[in-house]
Amino acid sequence: MTGAEALRQGAARLAAAGVPGAADDARLLLAHALELPRHHLAAALAAPLPPEALRRFDAGLVARAARQPVSQILGRRAFWKHDFCVTRDTLDPRPETETLVEAALAEPFSSVLDLGTGTGAILISLLAERPGVRGTGTDISSAALKVAQENSGRIGVCADFLESDWFSSVRGRFDLIVSNPPYIALEEMAQLNPEVREWEPHQALTDGADGLSAYRVIAAGAPAHLLPGGRLMVEIGPTQGAAVVSLMCAAGLIAPRILPDLDGRDRVVTARKPL
Asked: Are strands 111-115 and 82-85 parallel, antiparallel or unpaired?
């Protein structure tokens, strides 16, 4: 079987399983099976597919047909300017979260705390852009912290990682606090696509309540961990802007703003500690 034949059959299998974007996913999985960059795949399509590559491709198709995310099958996801290792213990970094990174980089900072760091994608992206900045990432999951540490070492930035339930183990104050916390309400979980609902860690997706629990803790604790003039920036669901702004203002933070993502949806709330 040639690579082209395998690709055609693989795309048909995924489409029959109801996988969206079946053709693109099949190409990614075949390139992964051949251990090739995706843009080098065309040259391999006319050649017979090696037996080991065919086995890897078939295993990838089986996993994708079960709606496992492609990023978990490949073990990586592109975010900002780097590829990040991902596992079932981490939230898959998403393009809309780059809105938070871009907004954070709009002002200087010398220290940053990332609450619920997961893969470390936000923190590591910020530190890679700002050499010499002190960075700390926290997570309640030791498995996620292991992934973040691996990503930090591979990308070549220096960061501290701390197992902590939000601020519980954090000491010191920072110029910038960022977070992409679990913000999906429990009643909304059933509406998620299976790639998210069945494969990503629920504690990184939902608070098991109204979707605002993490923001209550973060807003209340941020003033004690921000330097004067320091910023708090959080990713939100598109309907949560007003509620999160209210929480920040109630905690004594000032100058709140709601920032949109590239699709025009509310995506980031930012406020700062008074001078």
From this structure: unpaired
- Binding-site residues for S-adenosyl-L-methionine, please? 116-120, 139, 166, 180
Q: Which CATH fold would you assign to the domain 3-66?
A: Helicase, Ruva Protein; domain 3 (1.10.8)
Predicted pLDDT of residue 102: 97
**Which positions make up the binding site for substrate?**
180-183
Give pLDDT < 70 ranges for the chain: none
Domain boundaries, the chain: 3-66, 88-272
pTM score: 0.92
What local confidence, expressed as pLDDT, does residue 37 receive? 83
Residue ranges of the binding site: 116-120, 139, 166, 180-183
- Given the candidates 3.40.630.30, 3.40.50.150, 3.10.310.30, 3.20.20.70, the CATH classification of the domain at 88-272 is 3.40.50.150
